[in-house]
Design goal:
The chain is of the alpha/beta class. The protein has one domain: Rossmann fold. The protein is built from ten helices and five strands; from the N terminus they run βαβααααβαβααβαα. The protein has a five-stranded parallel β-sheet with strand order 2-3-1-4-5, sandwiched between helices. Helix 1 crosses helix 10 and helix 2 packs across helix 5. The protein is globular, with a radius of gyration of 17 Å.
């Protein structure tokens, strides 16, 4: 099957930190009976790239400031680990989209699939800061960092990563089929809307 052909139902979810992307994806997966990939995606990328799961997790959706700087000063001879991991993730995303119906969180999957001509329902999830801070407190991933600063840093890293690898602005409605406010609609409400679109 070519990159421009796909008989599978693919949903891509981009999200602000704390907007409940994983929660919505998990519920949507259960309702539609298709797998969802976020952290499990790391294992697939590790197998495809030769990088360890720890290395991939640490790069994640970060822009990789140091490696990007090195790439800028010697672009002909140096490929940053972030670039190599992104290429591996791109290959995994394209392979998955051609093999099964699934839900993919983040990793510029909406743009990767669009550029390959593979249809997908592209969703962007957002929420007011108050709702996001509440969710972030539940996740407790901030360590000793002030929660609001932590959320801002995570958003900033996602925005930089998206800009570097797509050339687009993170959250721009032109990149998505639908944008949903999880704070107002609720996770279950978002799942109903998305599953309704999928038919």
């Amino acid at each position: 099957m070519s990159e421009t052909e796909s008989r599978h139902a693919i949903i891509t979810i981009s999200r602000e930190y704390g907007a409940g992307g994983r929660s919505v994806a998990k519920k949507l997966s259960e309702k539609l009976g298709i797998p969802w990939y976020d952290r499990d995606f790391v294992k697939k990328t590790a197998a495809a790239s030769g990088y360890t799961e720890e290395e991939i997790s640490s790069e994640g959706e970060a822009a990789g400031t140091r490696s990007r700087w090195l790439n800028l000063i010697s672009p002909m001879s140096y490929e940053s680990s972030t670039d190599a991991i992104f290429k591996a993730q791109r290959a995994v995303i394209l392979d998955m989209a051609q093999k099964e119906s699934c839900i993919i969180i983040g990793r510029c999957a909406n743009i990767i699939l669009r550029e390959a001509g593979i249809p997908n329902l592209s969703v962007f999830l957002y929420a007011d800061m108050e709702d996001r801070l509440k969710r972030a407190a539940e996740l407790a991933e901030n360590g000793d960092m002030d929660l609001k600063k932590f959320v801002a840093r995570r958003d900033s890293r996602r925005e930089a990563y998206y800009k570097i690898y797509t050339g687009h602005s993170f959250g721009d409605y032109h990149d998505y089929n639908i944008s949903l406010d999880t704070g107002r609609i609720g996770y279950d409400g978002c799942v109903e809307i998305i599953s309704g679109i999928m038919g």
